[in-house]
Amino acid sequence: MARYDRIARLDCPQRSHAFPAWLALRDLAGRERDPELNRRTRLRFLVLRPVHRLLAHGFGSVGKRSMDQQLACVRAELARLAHADRERRALARCLDTMASLSYEELPADLIAAGAMIEAAGHTYGAEEYYLTALEVSRRLGLASARLMAARSLGRVYGARREWTAARERLEAAVADAEAQGDPDTLEETLRELVMVLIEAGDLEAADGAVAMIGQGDEPAADGNVDGVRAAALCAIALASGQVERALESGWRAIERLRPGTPSHSRVLLDLATGFRRHGLREAAEACYLMVTRAHPDLGLTSEARIQHALVAAEAGDRPAFQLRREELASAQREMDRHRAAAMHIALSRGAMLVGDLDGARAHLHQASEMAREEGLEDTAADVETLAPTLEERPKAEIPANNPQPSDAVRSIAARIESLSQDLVPSG
User: Fold this and answer.
1) C-beta separation of 304 from 310 below 8 A
2) Domain boundaries of the chain, sorted by first residue
């Protein structure tokens, strides 16, 4: 008899050497007997088949009747997922867009579906959706969608620690963003490149990427380039432990970026982290309040609310933490399940800091339930990491080894607190 345990493992083929959309199935490798993942990967593949048909034959060459017949077959398969399933809704939007022949909207729908798949920890399926979105956007000449797809690919390659591929995608995206002249898009794209380079341990390359902004032939963001550079330098300094330098760069960015924009809010979140490392709670809280009350982006406001609660827990202020925890519970209905699960993980840590172990267990249980129901592998990993610490009572005060703030740091903190009083309405 043949010894199958001696058969060499076959490497996965390159995407260009296999059938279209095959990467959507690659997350099954090593988990072939997982029935839920089998069902999901098959559905992801089926949704992409008509997209690749359009790419192969041309967006005006496939008849509507033929397309409707193919989409109807996919819808029948998709109906097997629960109606409230987030991924089902995202995949259904892709089908609806194709049915309506609104192909210019298709890349954004594919990217949104890829983000859902990525959030579940299935990076190859997400990669296939992002690559397909990139191909569609190139074919249709959609510059903004092409940029978003490249950024998404950079992020997923970074998550897999494929640093060269991540850097190539994000450098191309930064060049596109600079040519478009939108400071918010440029700042966000540059930030993603910088964070990938930091995670790869290449701080010199991160500094070099920032220095290149504004040096090309295209005009850079209508005079906002200094603010974009300063925001990126703040992130680099914070990641490398140079907190005072981070605060100085962050304040310079705040002076140059328009309040209420995503760029401005992300810098405020970085500043708050720096202030917390110096034990400057009031300044950190001022940053979080400015984000929550001045910016409509749900992801940024949710992060600010969560951190606003945690800074109270770090200081051992149980009443303030409890009040902010209740406010977050009220806001949970506005969040998707992945963001809500992350919130419960954070609040579990906060509850432990103030000695509320029952509350910590309750939050951890809710996060675990959401991870199980939604297939959120990253949340499940966080729950597994945090659970053993529940019986340990962490100290509820800010650690005593915070660096003593310099006069420059205190000055920046005072200016931030003053700015918050100007930007945040009272009452």
Assistant:
1) no
2) 18-160, 319-390
Residue 171 confidence (pLDDT) above 80: yes
Residue 74 token pair: 């996919």
Residues 162 and 150: their CA atoms lie apart, in Å, by 14
- Please give the structure tokens belonging to residue 59: 């967006």
Joined together, the tokens standing for residue 387 give 């659970």
Going by C-beta distance under 8 Å and a sequence separation of 6 or more, which residues neighbour residue 90?
Answer: 109, 112, 113, 115, 116
For the cut 60, the answer to whether the pLDDT of residue 339 exceeds it is: yes
- Counting every residue written for the chain, the total comes to 427
Token couple for 130: 């992002």
Specify whether the CB–CB gap between 254 and 270 falls below 8 A: no
Helices 123-140 and 143-159 meet at what angle, rounded to 10? Answer: 160
pTM of the model: 0.79
Asked if 272 contacts 403 with a C-beta cutoff of 8 angstroms, the reply is no
CB 379 within 8 Å of CB 341 = yes
Cα 58 from Cα 47, distance rounded (Å): 17
The model's pLDDT over 275-306, given as tens digits with 9 standing for 90+, comes to 999 999 999 999 999 998 865 667 888 899 99
Q: How many CA atoms lie within 13 A of 135 on its CB side?
A: 18
Query: Taking a C-beta distance cutoff of 8 angstroms, is the pair 270, 235 a contact?
Result: yes
pLDDT at 117 over 60: yes
Amino acid at 55: L
3-class DSSP assignment, residue 114:
helix
Query: Residue 402's pLDDT is what?
Result: 65
CA–CA separation, 307 vs 100, rounded Å? 42
In sequence order, what are the residues at sequence separation of 6 or more whose Cβ sits closer than 8 angstroms to the Cβ of residue 161? Answer: 199, 200
Contact residues for 42 (Cβ-Cβ < 8 A; gap 6+): 25, 77
How far is it, in rounded angstroms, from Cα 42 to Cα 259?
45
Say how far apart CA 51 and CA 53 lie, in whole Å: 5
- Residue 427 to residues 145, 306, 321, 424: CA-CA distances in angstroms? 41, 21, 20, 9
Residue 149, both tokens: 């797809």
